[in-house]
């Protein structure tokens, strides 16, 4: 009885530490007062002002678009790379996986500075050739694709190792082309890993600040860089409202996934 009570207390403490900051943020999003230390009554005005703030909406649009594009491109490239690595010999596999994991294991600030120097050097070389180049949306997208690739590869590789290649070979023997056999046999089997890599890439891209800060240039702010630039003035209450909406969206998606009838069987 005592052990059960201690375990429940410990679990409650963990949940409290995880979600107390988010709960505080959600409460402040409904605070009529602009300051976080004074409760001015319940109000939805910060949600109204959120949809009137073009700067925040533009940063939100950039964040979602970059996250979606980088996740899609990284998923395609990462899945292709995982299939190629899977068909290599074990020694070459370990070497390629080690190289592919460098962007994930390397410190983000090192990767960000390296990308910044690369883009600056490329801009100087292109300027000498009469081509105008500057950092912005495209450079942020390239940076996000790069650090998302290892997550996709690591998500797809275990599914490829579990794949029964005899089904693929049987499809070829029965007259299917290599492309048809891949899309009808191999891809459905590794799809859980592909989807996991996509969702992980999308989440990591939404969350990234360091690399984005170094390669964004002018006019390509995401939510993380916009919040950082406004810290000196103080975070606007509209950000509380936006954060609350994003958290609730993720919460309801997870809730729907867990309420799926197939999970009850």
- Residue share in β-strands: under 5%
- The value of Rg in angstroms is 23 Å
How many strand units?
A: 0
SSE string, helix = H, strand = E?
HHHHHHHHHHHH
Extract low-pLDDT stretches.
none
Shape: globular
**Tally of separate helices:** 12
* Distance between the first and last residues' Cα: 31 Å
In which range does the helix fraction lie?
over 70%
Please summarize the sheet with the most strands.
none
Average pLDDT taken over every residue: 85
The secondary structure category is mainly alpha
Topology summary:
Blueprint: H1 2-28, H2 45-50, H3 54-86, H4 90-100, H5 102-105, H6 108-128, H7 137-162, H8 165-173, H9 178-207, H10 210-215, H11 223-229, H12 237-258
Helix pairs in contact: 1-12, 3-7, 3-9, 7-9, 8-9
